[in-house]
Each structure stands twice: as C-alpha cells, then as structure tokens.
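Example S7 (structure tokens).
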C-alpha cells in the first residue's frame, strides 16, 4: 500500500513519544529568549540554504538540545554506495562526539534527520486544511513527500532502528515526524518564530531521551574501531590460502590437505570483506536461540528491500561470534498475523522432515517484542473518530490538558500561512471534524487498516550464490530440478506451500561431497530454495476477500497467468510449477545464446508488462498468449530457439500448460453457465458459446497441433473479443497433459531426462548478461499510489534488476525500482 501518514497534535506527540525522564520537571528546562529565531523573521523570503544556516546557528549557539549538535550536509553525498541515489539531506542532529566536519550526511551517525524547504505552500508535503479537496499543487507536495520518505529509507537501511524522528522546516514553520515500518506520524505545522518555546521544548525533550527512546535498536550494538569485535571482522575478512575456489571440480590432494572443517569458499569470505565498507557502521546483532541469544557481526547488507513502509528486509553475510563461521542473517519487520508462521518455524519443520535443498536453520526469533506503533495510533484514530461522531450532537466533554505549559496553549493549528486563502467555498463542500489524530489522505483507494509489523531475525548456515551465477544451461536446469524437489518435499512431507517461487529465491549453493562414480571429494553446485517467509500450511484454506484489487502473494514477474487473472484464488501446485517455468525462461533468455536478438525487449514485454482492466492490474498479453498458445516468439512468427535440450523442455512445458488452461477455461465456462442459467448438471459441449468473463486465457489451437507443429510455424491469431471464442471440451490428450501439472513428478522427470542428455548440451552456451546496462524501457510502469520516491531514473526494468518480494496481502504491480544482490 502507499505510505500512510497520520497527523497528531504536537502536545499529544510530546506526551506519547517524548516523555520527561524520572526526576526531570518542566520547570527544569532552560529559559530560551523569545527572539532566539529572530534571524528567521523574514523566513518567507529566504532561500533554503539561508534558512538552514540561520536555523542551525540558532540551535547550536543557543544550546537548545544539550548533548546534541546540528551539522549540514547539503552539497556532498556519502563517499561510497551507502545510498544509490547519492542523496544529500540538508542536516541532522548528532551526538557531540559524532558531529561530521566534511559536509557529508554520515547516515550511520544521524540521530534526528532534518530537512529544510522554502516557505511555500507546495513545499509542505502535508496539508492541515479541513476540507477534502485536493490542493492545486498536490503533485509538488507528493514529490517533496517522496523525497523525505527516501531520506528516512536510507537511515533505516544503514542503521538498525525501530523508528526515526525527523524535523521538517518549511520557512517559518516546522513539523515533527516519527517514521516506522507501518507509516508516519506527523505533527501539525507550527510557526516556530512566533512560538519559539514550542520547538525549543520539543528539542530539549529529545536531548533527554535515551538511545532506545530515539529509535536506536538496543539489540544491535554499534561497534567502534577500538572494539575487539570490530577488529575481529577485519581479521576474518582477510584472504585465506585454504579457502576453496567456487567452480565445480574434483578436489586436489593439496586442497584436501589444507581446506578447513567445514570448508570455506572464497566467494563467501570475499562477500564478507566487501560488506566492510568504510561509511557503513558495524554492529553486533542479537538473535534469539534456544536458551538465550546468539550474536553475529554485520556491516553492509548484501541485499535490502526498497521502500520505507513494509518489511524492510536486509540480508547479511554475518560472522557467528560463537563459532567464527560465516552465515546468512536476515533482518526483517514481518507482518504480524497470528496465523502466519515465522520463517524459522517453517525451516525447522522442513529440516526435521529431512526436506532436501532448503536452508539449514541455526536460530531465529522475534526481537525483544519490538513492534511498530503507527498501526496502534491508526486504530486509536479510528476509535476517536467514531467517538467524535457519536458525541457530535451532544455537549462537549472536558478536555485533558497536556503536561507542557508551552504546548498546552497552542491553537489547534498554525499552518494557515502555508495554505492559500480561499475566496469562496461551494455550499456543497464537504468538511470533516478534527480529532486528536487524523489520517493524511493519499491518492487512490487505501486499505482499511495499517499493518502491524514485528521485528524478526533468522540465521541459516548457507551463504549461497545468486541464480545468475549459473555456469551453463545444463547447470541451470539442474538447479531448477533441485528446487523443484525441495518444493515437492515441502508439500508432500511437511504440508507446506512455498507461494513465492522467483529468481531471487532460487539460489546456487556450492558444497563439498563425494562423487557418485568413485567417492572422491568434489565441489558440486546444488540448488537451494530459500525465503519461506510467505509459505503456508497447505491444509489451511486461504482467505480470499473480494477487493477491487485482489491480494496476490509472490513476485509479479514470476506469478502464474492464473494468479494474475484479476480473480482471487489460492496458490496451487500448477501455479508454483508455472513460476518455475518462468524462472527458467527468464534466466535462459537473459544469459544463454539464442536467436532472440533483443532479450531486453522480450523480458520487458513478457515479465514486466501488464494489462489494466477496471483499475485491476492483470497479466500482460505476451505471457498470457505464450501459455495459451504454447509458443514463445523471439519476434513475429519466429519461435525462440536455444539449439539445446531447452527447446524440448520449453515445448513440452508449454504444451502441458496450454492444455491446463484449456481445461481450466472449459471448467470455468461450465461453472459460469451453471450460475447464469441455473442448470443442475454440466452443459453439453456447445459448438459455439461464450467463455467465462473470469477466464483470462482461452485455447485457440488443439494440443496435438502444438505438439507436432514445426517450431517456426506461426500460431493462430485469437479474436480481439475473447468472449466470442469457442471453448470446446478438452480432448483426452489435453486432460492427460493437464493432469501432469497437478504433481511435481512429471515435470521433474521430464527435466531430468533432458539434463541427462549430456551430448546435446553445450558447455559454453552462457554468453553473459544480454541486457545492456543502458537499456531504456519502452513502456511506462504501473502508476503507484501515494508519494513518488523515484528521484533518480532507473536504467533497467524490474525483472532486469531484481524481482521485488511482496508480502501476504500486498498487491504486486509492475515496478522497476528494485535492488538486490540476486541479479
């Protein structure tokens, strides 16, 4: 969902989030002069840089926040890749010993981020007016709001936080913001020149808060250069002669003699060393385990999810303090639903049931009961609004005064200087009553509640390679086979459905094991099906609420045609098998030699494209037609060919899915006919009938023709009006092919047979990344609701960068602003 902001009165904000420590009274606050911000009297005419200079001088010289200092960073980004967009927030509050002097933001040291804007209506990303009408400068407001969201995102990416305070200065006015993974709480705009004691008291209160009360995660200990663990990280990052090279081979006698126990691969240590970037802070993280906690050392994440609201997933190559071994640690704010299993609990069950090719759990757990509070504020707001509506016709009740004298005397809002006066109002204008907390409205339809997130960490033994590192087409197929076996074992042995088969979740894991032929130890690559966070017991039915935009679980680019049909449905085995097909196709087209002369355009049209029907994003035409017609085309009437067993694999899989969707279309037509005509028995096959509107794919060619037709023969064109397509009863062969997709075994057997044809595979068919770095997408991405955080143009489509993950009940739509190590 779009990032949600909730407005709160300043007094309530102070009482709830900036309470005074025990033994400190309001009377203890310093006496600030009423002219402390006199230099900003003409703030409405000043440039942002002038506002920043005068404001920072007033705060630092006046010692408004004892123990904290402000520093500017308006012109210089961080010196390395802390932030992809090289953003330059205007200023921040730092601890006295961490104040930067080089004019850079030093994201890892910021306690309270600060942004300055000119005194203009369209520079305020929030609107305190009573009416619901959209402001004339809504687009500019959205742009500014997206900018400050991106700043908060960088702080959360670099630091380990539960929340973040941000100070927003718009000319003579200020707002205080509190960010967490559920949304943002925003105070009303207040003129700090006219009411200087309000801002000064808030900053004084902030200076009295502990690190934890300022949002720093107490389960993450910041390491300094003099700490033992800091230097331990440097020691284990050094190259080691005993580390094994990654490529597959029989180990030499020298390697057997010197390798460690367990063996360490060079890419693992190199990844850990690469994470020790100079501008990134180092941490010792706690992770719950049986009987207590274990600690792990991390620096820069190898993977991070974009966006502020949501899970905020980060993945690290970590050093285990107990064993000094490298492990994989995932830090995430999981959606807190009682019926949703923790990923570690899923892996624990899979490991217990001896499911192969899945990660090995070390430890996991929720972190110190840390949850987001914005969702609680939202619920309070709904209750307050209901109470206000119920009491609207009655007498006013007594109001509880805030504890602060300076905050208590404020009017409800002093932001009128930011709002252009209205000459007249329509008699039909709609007003809303104010409560202590109000929801900042955003464009488009929103959910009825904010999600509560809980902080969670999980550690597994395996540090794996991204799928893009496969060595050749044959090895790619073997990796898919291994992950299919993992999926099969999880479903058949443990009753678990993965529900997010994607390129980012299929990994390559090098291991040392005896060779089957002679027992000699060798390095072998195996597939690993990871990220079971969205998985679910298969015996629990999925709740499918009928919404305007149906919920989907998974990654847009690899979801099945049926899951992208616009009709809510549970994830089933054929959907997951189809996702494996899409993964195999994506990596084959992008990295292997083929007659597809423009892989970038094919990937964009097949994986990123979408259709829009009545406001609902559905499957793109190219993917839908490929599954419906059983054919992949490199260009008009030219089938994609790899000159390898992959041609046979795709031909068979597409024929099976073509049959599956033909059977599905016929069943849907019968079901719809029963509902429409009230028939008690299934319809007999019509010679010409109308297909169900709920069917997104309709067969246009018999399956026998698809099996026997020459690969270069063009498929029949479907009618522009699919409702007029005939839907004949499936043939016996089609039903047989469709049945093969109800279980894993047929697909695994077919892939295994193709893999075993060693003489037909070419060992050097991988030709590198065929998508140019400077490829410009041809089509616009789906419009996102809410503020835009895309401040720098991306050069690749979402599927060409990395596939974004989506959580249960999230609505995946095509996007390009993604980043991951799994490229």
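Recovered sequence:
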């Amino acid at each position: 969902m779009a990032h949600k902001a909730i407005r709160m009165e300043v007094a309530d904000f102070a009482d709830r989030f900036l309470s005074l420590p025990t033994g400190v009274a309001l009377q203890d606050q310093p006496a600030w002069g009423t002219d402390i911000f006199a230099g900003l009297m003409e703030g409405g005419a000043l440039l942002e840089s002038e506002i920043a200079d005068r404001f920072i001088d007033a705060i630092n010289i006046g010692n408004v926040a004892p123990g904290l200092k402000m520093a500017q960073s308006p012109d210089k980004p961080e010196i390395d890749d802390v932030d992809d967009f090289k953003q330059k927030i205007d200023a921040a509050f730092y601890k006295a010993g961490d104040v930067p002097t080089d004019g850079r933001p030093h994201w890892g040291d910021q306690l309270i981020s600060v942004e300055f804007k000119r005194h203009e209506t369209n520079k305020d990303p929030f609107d305190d007016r009573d009416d619901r009408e959209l402001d004339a400068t809504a687009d500019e407001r959205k742009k500014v709001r997206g900018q400050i969201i991106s700043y908060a995102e960088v702080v959360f990416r670099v630091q380990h936080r539960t929340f973040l305070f941000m100070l927003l200065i718009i000319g003579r006015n200020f707002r205080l913001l509190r960010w967490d993974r559920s949304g943002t709480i925003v105070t009303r705009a207040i003129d700090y020149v006219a009411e200087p004691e309000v801002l000064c008291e808030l900053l004084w209160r902030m200076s009295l808060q502990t690190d934890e009360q300022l949002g720093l995660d107490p389960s993450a200990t910041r390491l300094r250069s003099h700490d033992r663990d800091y230097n331990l990280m440097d020691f284990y990052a050094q190259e080691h002669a005993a580390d094994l090279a990654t490529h597959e081979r029989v180990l030499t006698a020298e390697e057997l003699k010197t390798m460690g126990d367990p063996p360490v691969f060079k890419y693992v240590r190199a990844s850990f060393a690469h994470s020790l970037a100079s501008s990134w802070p180092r941490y010792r993280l706690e992770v719950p385990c049986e009987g207590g906690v274990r600690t792990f050392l991390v620096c820069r994440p190898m993977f991070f999810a974009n966006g502020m609201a949501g899970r905020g997933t980060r993945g690290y190559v970590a050093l285990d303090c107990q064993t000094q071994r490298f492990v994989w640690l995932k830090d995430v704010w999981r959606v807190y639903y009682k019926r949703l299993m923790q990923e570690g609990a899923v892996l624990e069950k899979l490991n217990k049931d001896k499911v192969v090719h899945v990660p090995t759990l070390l430890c996991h757990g929720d972190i110190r009961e840390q949850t987001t509070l914005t969702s609680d504020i939202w619920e309070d707001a709904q209750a307050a609004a209901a109470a206000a509506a119920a009491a609207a016709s009655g007498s006013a009740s007594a109001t509880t005064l805030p504890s602060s004298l300076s905050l208590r005397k404020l009017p409800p809002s002093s932001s009128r200087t930011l709002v252009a006066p209205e000459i007249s109002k329509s008699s039909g204008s709609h007003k809303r009553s104010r409560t202590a907390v109000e929801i900042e409205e955003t464009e488009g339809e929103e959910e009825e509640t904010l999600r509560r997130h809980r902080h969670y960490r999980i550690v597994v033994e395996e540090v794996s390679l991204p799928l893009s590192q496969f060595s050749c087409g044959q090895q790619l197929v073997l990796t898919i086979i291994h992950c299919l076996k993992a999926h099969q074992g999880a479903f058949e042995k443990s009753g678990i459905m993965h529900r997010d088969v994607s390129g980012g979740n299929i990994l390559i894991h090098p291991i040392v094991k005896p060779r089957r032929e002679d027992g000699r130890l060798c390095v072998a690559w195996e597939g690993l099906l990871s990220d079971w966070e969205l998985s679910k017991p298969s015996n629990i039915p999925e709740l499918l609420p009928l919404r305007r935009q149906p919920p989907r679980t998974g990654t847009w680019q690899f979801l099945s045609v049926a899951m992208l049909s616009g009709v809510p449905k549970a994830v089933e085995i054929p959907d997951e098998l189809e996702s494996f097909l899409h993964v195999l196709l994506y990596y084959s087209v992008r990295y292997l030699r083929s007659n597809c002369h423009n892989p970038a355009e094919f990937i964009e049209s097949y994986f990123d494209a979408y259709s829009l029907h009545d406001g609902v994003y559905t499957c793109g035409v190219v993917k839908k037609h490929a599954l419906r017609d059983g054919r992949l085309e490199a260009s008009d009437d030219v089938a994609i060919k790899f000159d390898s067993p992959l041609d046979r694999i795709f031909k068979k899989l597409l024929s099976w899915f073509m049959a599956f969707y033909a059977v599905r279309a016929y069943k849907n037509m019968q079901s719809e006919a029963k509902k429409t005509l009230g028939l008690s028995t299934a319809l007999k096959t019509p010679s010409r009938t109308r297909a169900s509107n709920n069917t997104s794919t309709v067969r246009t060619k018999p399956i026998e023709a698809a099996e026997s037709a020459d690969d270069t023969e063009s498929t029949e064109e479907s009618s522009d009006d699919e409702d007029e397509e005939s839907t004949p009863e499936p043939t016996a062969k089609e039903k047989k092919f469709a049945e093969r997709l109800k279980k894993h075994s047929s697909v695994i057997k077919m892939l295994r047979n193709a893999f075993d044809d060693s003489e037909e595979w070419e060992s050097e068919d991988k030709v590198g990344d065929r998508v140019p770095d400077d490829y410009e997408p041809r089509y616009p991405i789906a419009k996102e609701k809410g503020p835009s955080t895309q401040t720098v143009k991306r050069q690749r489509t979402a599927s060409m960068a990395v596939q974004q993950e989506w959580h249960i009940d999230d609505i995946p739509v095509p996007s390009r602003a993604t980043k991951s190590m799994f490229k």
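Notes on this example. The chain has a mean pLDDT of 82.
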